[in-house]
Amino acid sequence: VSYNIAGHTIDNTVLDDIKIDWMRLVDEENITQSDRYIRQGREEEEGRLLLPVLRIYGIGFKDVRVSDTSGMAELIDWFQNKAEEKYRVFLIGGVPSKWRTLVGDSREESSWKDIYDSLDGIHPWHVGRWR
């Protein structure tokens, strides 16, 4: 599953909607019960856990209107640590191509480095960047 937040104004309502929709997909659609749903491991104190993969595209892009990183940090922490175990995921961020250097298409505030570092996986958007 991939959620696309690119081009939107991100507030707590949007972030809560992502959580609510994920819980609905897990509880009502049982998508993570399928042996075809992709899983990836993450090391934790208890050992290696195989978790369902979830991607949120648009994290850290300049065109995503967000006042600060606290809501995004909270959402990431919820998916990785605070949610009931059945809702936890291996979280991939669809991020800007210049995410490592915080320039170009990336938000430039230093707090975004912590957001990028907190993700389990990074999927930078490079479409149209080379000729």
Question: Describe it for me?
Answer:
The protein is an alpha/beta fold and 131 residues long. Helices cover 28% and strands 24% of the residues. Helix 1 packs parallel to helix 2. The model has no long low-confidence stretch (mean pLDDT 90).
Class computed from helices, strands and strand pairing: alpha/beta
Total count of strands: 5
Q: Termini, distance in Å? A: 30 Å
The topology string of helices and strands comes to EHEEHEHE
- Name the poorly predicted regions: none
In short:
The protein is α/β, with parallel strands linked by helices. The chain has helices spanning 12-27, 70-82, 111-118; strands at 2-4, 39-44, 47-57, 90-96, 121-125. Strands 1, 2, 3, 4 and 5 form a 5-stranded mixed β-sheet that branches.
Q: How do the helices and strands line up, and which of them pair or pack?
A:
Layout lengths: L1 E3 L7 H16 L11 E6 L2 E11 L12 H13 L7 E7 L14 H8 L2 E5 L6
Features:
alpha/beta; 5-stranded mixed beta sheet; 3 helices; globular
